[in-house]
Amino acid sequence: MSGAATGRETALDDGWELVVGLEVHVELSTATKLFCACANRFGDEPNTNVCPVCLGLPGSLPVVNAAAVDFAMRLGRALGCEVRPAVFARKNYFYPDMPKDYQISQYDQPTNIDGRLKLPDGHVVGIERAHIEEDTGKTTHVGGGGRIHDADYALVDYNRAGVPLVEIVSRPDIRTAEQARAFVRELRAILLSIGVSDARMEEGSMRVDANVSVRPTGSDELRTRCEIKNLSSLRSLGRAITFEARRHVDLWSSGERPRQETRHWDEAGGRTTPGRSKEDAEDYRYFQDPDLVPLAPSAETVAAIDAALPPLPAARRAELVAAGAGAVPASDAALLVERDQDGLVLAAISAGADPGLTVTRVANDLAVEDWSKVTPDGLASLVALEASGRVTATQAKQILADIVESGETPEAISERRGFQAMAGHDLAVTVDQVIASNPDEWRRFCSGDDADRKKLAGFFIGQVMRATKGRADGAAVNRLLQQLTHGPTSD
Ligand code: ZN
Ligand code: MN
């Protein structure tokens, strides 16, 4: 890992090693919920996507959504898991946003087990399981700064109740805060690649809990862990792990021991605070849900999922880097895959565009939501204009912004904006022509004193402006005139 900031963040006191496992809840982007036909949609009016099933009304019966199971298996296979026959279980506990008083989840027979996720730096993190469960509703505490203890009242929105989730549980194989962030980034890239979730941490469709402990370096024991709940950004994840690890080191070093508990991350205070003492699985009184049949995917079903799995982010990054033949940095490749722009760039490169320049233009200047009007051919033409010096980098950025808006060709935009005549080769040709048509003025310009030269420079600039219908840059013409009398300047 490089970078001073991550180095500082991940440093633990000498002799201590960080041990982190992550639990990531991901909302699947199915059209409907896990056990009913209500719409699965973020941001609707509260309590409009509800029915007797997801409100837990008496007599209602869940029916499993086949698409959600398919998405979950697809994710399992993308993580190298074994897809197993699975059973839905009831996880019993009370919370106001969970009207049945139990959550339908999977317990000892989850759909996916024993996978792995390889980080871009090559570190491999084991995946213990990736099981299917339903989401709860969403509680908003009003007043008292939004904290449950000081709130005046709470509002509950059941639109989220019953939304399909996959909970991905990693093994405690993560050794630095940066690896934890890389794990979440890579998982997110996989989710987007296979199209099973929009994985937006800021909208809560991807939520991360971190199990943190420390141990003496070199030992393989697992000491008491604390679970930091609901980290809602990569930045919070890194900061929370670093804080919590130091807290544990301090406790162990002074002869105390951490308590096994859940903790909350206080972003403003930069610290974790204690939550409930952690339940053991027994406390939830799991038992098989009698309303749902077990899932028994056939070998053919799993084979069909494998066959339909699109290329994963690691392969897509590698393809882009290879197509760039040394001109595409790994960080740009990762960014383009994350934005799903690698296909566009590869197609432009196939159409003859310079790889390095194409990647630079797209990585730096195409960070927009809707780039559907940018075609591979359009991008390739734009890069050709810039590579040949017919437009400058600044002009190329403007043209790209125009393509995003209008979908015009780069040549048409360049023409309309008068870019082409102003720069590079075309301008030099025009200056040559003007000089050739005015040999006397040119001789006087070359041999004259400063005052003559200044006056005649004005004359030539005027002629060039006339020839280019005002599109030339006067300063650029002047530079060319000076170069032609003195030879190219070294700066
Ligand atoms: Zn419903
Ligand atoms: Mn869960």
What's the helix and strand layout?
Layout: H1 4-10, E1 16-27, H2 66-78, E2 82-83, E3 88-92, E4 102-106, E5 112-118, E6 124-134, E7 138-142, E8 153-157, E9 164-170, H3 177-194, E10 206-216, E11 226-231, H4 234-253, E12 261-266, E13 271-277, E14 287-288, H5 299-308, H6 313-324, H7 330-338, H8 342-350, H9 355-365, H10 376-387, H11 393-406, H12 410-417, H13 424-437, H14 439-447, H15 450-467, H16 474-486
Parallel strand pairs: 11-12
Antiparallel strand pairs: 1-9, 1-10, 2-5, 3-4, 3-14, 5-6, 6-9, 7-8, 10-11, 12-13
Helix pairs in contact: 3-4, 6-7, 6-8, 7-9, 8-9, 8-10, 10-11, 13-15, 14-15, 15-16
The chain binds zinc ion (ZN) and manganese (II) ion.
Zinc ion (ZN) binds next to loops.
Structural account:
The protein has 491 residues and is an alpha+beta fold. The chain has three domains: 8-307, no CATH class; 311-416, no CATH class; 424-486, Arc Repressor Mutant, subunit A (Orthogonal Bundle). It has 16 helices and 14 strands. The strands form three sheets. A nine-stranded mixed β-sheet has the order 2-5-6-9-1-10-11-12-13. Strands 4-3-14 form a three-stranded antiparallel β-sheet, with no helix packed on it. α6 (313-324) runs parallel beside α8 and α8 packs antiparallel against α9 (355-365). The radius of gyration is 31 Å and the shape is elongated. The chain starts with a helix and ends in a 5-residue tail after the last helix. The model is unreliable at 1-10 (pLDDT under 50). It binds zinc ion and manganese (II) ion. Residues 25, 133, 167 line the site of manganese (II) ion.
